[in-house]
Amino acid sequence: MPELSLPCRFESNVPLGKRGYYAIGGTARFFARPESLSALGDMLFWNREHRLPLAVMGEGSNIIFSDEEFPGIVLSLDGMQRIFWLSQDELFCEAGADNTMIAEELLKSGKSGGEWLYRLPGQIGSTVRMNARCFGGEVSAITSGIQTLSLDGRLSWKSPEEVFHGYKHTSLMENPEIVVAVVLHFPLESPEVEIHRQMEVYESERIKKHHFDYPSCGSAFKNNYEAGRSSGQIFEELGFKGSREGGAMVSEHHANFIFNRDAATAIDVLRLAGRMKSAALEKAGVKLDLEVQCIGRFGRTLLDACGVRYESDRSDPGKGWAGLLNSVQDDEADASFPRDPRILIQGPLVGYSGVDREVPPGAFVQVEQLRSQKEAASDPDAPFLRWTNRHTADKALFACKPPSTSGESTFVDGLWQYGVSELFIGDGGSGERYLEFEMTPEGEWVALRFDGPRKRSEGYTELSEKPWKSSLNLINDEECFGMEFTYALLEPFISEGRVSLQCFVSTGRGEYALFPWWPSPSLPADFHQPDKFFRVVLY
Predict the structure, then answer these.
(1) 19 with 215: CB under 8 angstroms?
(2) 527: which strand partners?
(3) In this structure, what DSSP letter does residue 398 have?
């Protein structure tokens, strides 16, 4: 294969056995570690062109990699680990944040309800994706929102009701979307000593059950509550404690743990898991589902025995691909434009620097594409993109208001000095040109055009509403405020079907927020950094 270079931090020819808890797996051609949303989005765009197999992992605490070489990209989010409090009760966590790190933050803040996360192997993104639970705690009960990124680069905000579908099951298991952040809700407070005591109880319980004696991924099978007893009890009744297959062995202390006891292969583990699944059904009459996720190319007979979903390998009918985010064999998915507006970015604004309670909480923004590029090109003066801000944001966010304008939509110079929401639309390629739009909930607005950071374009050095009036519509009602933009206005900034977007809020009191968030914002706050804007693909 020709040499390739990914648009983010990556390693080549990485032994996957050194990355996952099972200490099993072949070599990955690429192991990518993006440290920002924009880098992750750019990597997905890159792979849409090169069409390599793509899989995502957290800490590898619930994954078994194939023994074969993985000829594509294994994506790790451990470069995205920031956590900070949005409000008194809501904790923002990037997907790569370790569960134990979150529990320790709760301990420090005197917040209860997440003690069970302590020493739970894994990262919060994967924990949410599978609706993990233990010791009576379940992540669905403490989640208030999930930020996801689709393979075509759309940022979406999902409510818990959209994602969680019961015991260890979520909509994300069937959809090729990546959890990039989670907002957790902890309204209860407890003395630090009580929180710490409970964390120690859970840690002691894990040690007592010998969870960490040898490499494993914890429980191999989900429980089937119709059986009236746990999967571990069923396998113990069937005599599986200590059972072996090559280097794989069922724990002698917990019959639902399969250890890598002695240089086991993925084939060893799955053969043993297949025997256990078959025995549970045939001898105990209980259907059990494998909890460990398989990633890579495996024998189809093995996958069938374990009940693993897969995509058949056209080059080898006896093999199947499991755990891929994308299909590397089918034709491109239907790229037709949907009937409804297509959400490009959508989510909550967070503090510019990512520190605790940096701005009043509650601001929510989205940008939608209203029609396809082809349709828009035939009617370039019709609305093409729509930017909206929810009115449900905390009133303190926009409390600093410009002088009264009698409630009319008015073009106002110097609007940034007050409580204002801002949208930047930049060049989808590598250029530094961009547009800036500012608006208040009351309808005051301003627009600017730049050829580079803070370098106003010729003809736009003097602020005036005249160049903009025919190219945008103002939105200002009881529920939201924002603007619609024509294709004619945006077409110079579209490069290879992409533009870059960035949303900000300034309270007028020296407090700033942004969406999508940046990994290492410069200080003092500077919004005019087009290289950090988030690129999106248009249809």
Answers:
(1) no
(2) none
(3) G
Fold of 1-79+294-333: 3.30.43
Following CA atoms 265, 15, 329, 536 in sequence, which dihedral angle do they give, to the nearest 10 degrees? 140
DSSP code string of 178-204: EEEEEEEE---B--HHHHHHHHHHHHH
Which residue is associated with the tokens 């055009």? 449
Q: What's the CA gap between 230 and 256, in Å, rounded?
A: 9
Average predicted confidence (pLDDT) for the chain: 93
Residue 439: strand, helix, or coil? strand
Question: What letter represents residue 467's amino acid?
Answer: P
Other residues' Cβ atoms within 10 Å of the Cβ of residue 263: 12
Asked if CATH classification 3.30.465.10 holds for the domain at 83-205, the reply, yes or no, is yes
Provide the residue ranges of all domains of the chain, joining segments of one domain with +. 1-79+294-333, 83-205, 342-537
Prediction pTM value: 0.93
Rounded CA separation 81/100 (Å): 12
Alpha-carbon distance 415 to 398, whole Å? Answer: 12
User: In the predicted model, is pLDDT for residue 266 greater than 90?
Assistant: yes
Tokens of 344: 């490009």
Q: Domain 342-537 has what CATH class?
A: mainly beta
Spatial neighbors of 185 by CB under 8 A, at least 6 apart, are 89, 90, 91, 142, 143, 144
Alpha helices in 325-387 (DSSP H): 373-378
Looking from the CA of 106 toward its CB, the CA atoms found within 13 Å total: 32
Rounded Cα gap, residues 428 and 471, in angstroms: 20
| DSSP 3-state of 109 | helix
Strands 534-537, 83-85: pairing kind: unpaired
Tell me, rounded to whole angstroms, the distance of Cα 483 from its chain centroid: 27
Half-sphere exposure of 472 (CA within 13 A, CB side): 28
Q: Rounded distance, CA 256 to CA 241, Å? A: 9
For residue 410 the two structure tokens come to 């008015």
Q: Is it the case that residue 429 has pLDDT exceeding 90? A: no
Summarize pLDDT for 473-488 with one digit per residue, the tens: 999 988 899 999 999 9
Distance CA 396, CA 521 (A): 23
d(CA 175, CA 323): 11
Q: Cα torsion for 524, 530, 534, 538, to the nearest 10°?
A: 150
Confidence of residue 84 (pLDDT cuts 50, 70, 90): very high
Would you say 404 and 369 are in contact if contact means Cβ atoms under 8 Å apart? Answer: no
